[in-house]
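User: Hi! I'm working on a homework problem where we have to compare a predicted structure to a textbook description. Could you give me the structure for the chain below?
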Amino acid sequence: MHKYLFTNTTNHYRLTTALVFIFSFFILSTCRADPPKFADLPPVEKLPEIKELPDPFLFSDGSRVTNKADWDRRRQQIKEIIQYYEYGHIPPPPGNVTPQVLSLEFIFHKTAVKKHVLLTMGPDNNIKANLGIIKPAGSGPFPIILRNDIKIFQFPIAEELVRRGYILADYNRLDLDPDENKIVGPAQAAYPAYDWATLAVWAWGGMRAIDYLMTQDFVDKEKIVFTGHSRGGKTALLAGALDERIALTVPNGSGCGGAGCYRLEGKKCETLDAITKPTRFCYWFQPRLRTFAGFENRLPFDQHFLKALVAPRGLLTTDALGDLWANPLGTQQTYRAALPVFEFLGAPGKIGLHFREGKHDQTVDDFRALADFADLVFFGKKTSREFRKLPFPDAPLPYSWSPPKK
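Assistant: Happy to help. Predicted structure tokens:
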């Protein structure tokens, strides 16, 4: 009998110890995330040369996409490729984006409400970002145009866009990471295990603004536009490629590292080598991208891959013909190489490009083109604008591959 009691007591002790261990492990694992695991992809010297724009339908093992399920898998592979080689990996949503309304007022003869919101988020709530919102009067829901900039309330034709029925929102990307080399901003400090560079930080910040906007009843969650100019355009394209809540992505004047092209360079355009120099903007990108300077043909992707990730959601690139540094020719050619993906997914009308005369800026005409394309994609409204007109129609097709047959 004593032996029986001892045995059961021992078993009970072992069971209790095991349960305590499991419970403790569960608590620790929910309070402290495991270190992220990233794929280990080949370095530049082990990659083959691809002189034309690479085939987005081609898996890394040499097989090809044949159906929608295949494309979903290939899309995940492309996301890993661009984060590994170009932008760095971004953390998951923090799940604790908290708003604080700092100011609220009526504007435009009381036809709109202007609100300044401070967003707090991340580990220990150490990340903060200022968000400006201009909302049409009424309960909505309204489509929304989100912009990243270095200040808030920076829309040049805000009243006109509000009259057209759009909410305007912009966040200060510098709150998340300063636009300086060798500076660890608050977002990178909060997530030191991630290898993300500044463009990825800014894009992640836009996704967190969307986290908040998705909780607001006045926002039409199916009609979110994300835009930005120059480095902000690069940010917008990356966010649109990674976040499927963005219904329309509109990078403006984004050029190298954005809607432009690494392999195909127009005259006087910015190159991969120029943009990643340590004296310029190397910190925008994951350091691995710099290893492809002079070896652009070994890149296993080009910027049409980012555009392909947006499909079948909306994508419009807005640019200026006189903005040679932003590579207008390359932007056209990546558009042409991304179009087959939109066609394959049944959304050929969801991708467009708009070129105007002029220089490097996001002008009134650019915003009007954005709104016209949004009206077309969201509401089927007709427009006199031609969003598929090639500015360089004589340029040869930049690829020889064919899309899969449906």
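For your comparison, note the following. The two ends are 75 Å apart (CA to CA). The chain has two domains: 2-46, 68-379. Good luck with the assignment!
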